Amino acid sequence: MTAPTDGGPAAHLREQLADRLQGVGLRSVAWRAAVTAVPRESFVPDGFFRRGNSPRGTVWTPVTPVTEGREAWLEEVYADETLVTQLDGGVHPGDVDGPVPGSPTSSSTLPSLVVRMLEDLDPKDGDHVLEIGTGTGYSTALMCHRLGSDHVTSIEYDPAAAARARTAITTAGYTPRLIQGDGLLGDPNGAPYDHLIATCSVRTIPDAWLRQVRLGGTILTTLSGWLYGSGLVHLTVGENGTAEGTFLPGTVSFMIARPQAAPDLGDVSDLLKQPADERPARHGPEVLRDWVPLFLAQLAAPGAQYLGTRVAGGPRLIHAIDIRDGSFATLVPDDLGGTFRVDQGGPTRLWDDIEAAIDVWQAAGSPPQTAFTLGLSAAGQRVWLDTPDRPSWVLPT
Ligand SMILES: C[S@@+](CC[C@H](N)C(=O)[O-])C[C@H]1O[C@@H](n2cnc3c(N)ncnc32)[C@H](O)[C@@H]1O
């Protein structure tokens, strides 16, 4: 159950990391013991990517023991930072020599967030946990240390990440059940589980998760969507396919589960030239920036995606676009940039729906995300504010 510890600089760095996380995610002796035992460097053996800027946009530079020198590299591995380990579903730090463009598709999550979620999940001795999104395997290993490998199953969608995680987890001395596949389908063969924890986000809770977690068990996941709104929710499973739970504090976000990723927007220039109704906007683009308003906007317009454009010499325009039915809302600033006009086209008035949700929230006193609850029943999945009889938003199916 215990990872090999070297007693050298890495062991010292693990202690330092645990000290730093104390009160910032880490709350218990049991999880502290896991943090001080599991060698994070083993889960990023060929390094990670550091984000940077170039004239052509974001680039990612490989950070490896060779580029940095082992001691400096180890210090970075034990920073409370997310370590991006894969770009575009296939590029790893060992594959490239210098900065490359790309989008992160796998990582070792911010340690303070990993332990905070493990503390929130709070599995007890003997509990069986299903993890969705093995990633590097670091969080899987922490759970193996705490609960014993026989009590942990982890599913990773990406074949290359799954293979790397298997090697790292095995090398660190743990033997959980590891599955390469779609975590949205869960693990029927290992069910029932006491808890499910997802380190990728979902737009809607998969039925399989509900079926595979026992009555009274819990599901901890981020609910996200195509506008990049997000919220961490802790559900308790009830009878007959029901579950309910409130959103937890904090601004927690994860990459979306791959099968639920947004459809490609493609070239929308013709779509945005379609006829549109114009009116003054009551709420501007800040709705798509601020944490709780963005979450609400996404609940109100779950098919919408964000796009910013600028025509030469013109103002920056913010669009919400539902590419599936061709609906769009474009926020156009006035000359002084203080107020906005909204142009809406297609079958759905996206901005009307978004503003209505913001109105409900503001009428309730603009409460934090913890005032929202997610409820699942045979009738569907709904998020409500304060009490279930208040206006609510149905999650996409
Ligand atoms: C943020 S990383 C996981 C971090 C990991 N727990 C760690 O500590 O290293 C998210 C992972 O979820 C995986 N993922 C995305 N969609 C998935 C799905 N449907 N089923 C299982 N894994 C998925 C991604 O490939 C990625 O490796």
UniProtKB/TrEMBL annotation:
GO terms for molecular function: protein-L-isoaspartate (D-aspartate) O-methyltransferase activity. Coiled coil: none annotated. The keyword DNA repair does not apply. GO terms for cellular component: cytoplasm. It holds the Pfam family PCMT. Its main location: cytoplasm. CDD domains: AdoMet_MTases (cd02440). PANTHER family: PROTEIN-L-ISOASPARTATE O-METHYLTRANSFERASE, PROTEIN-L-ISOASPARTATE(D-ASPARTATE) O-METHYLTRANSFERASE. This is Protein-L-isoaspartate O-methyltransferase. It comes from Streptomyces jumonjinensis.
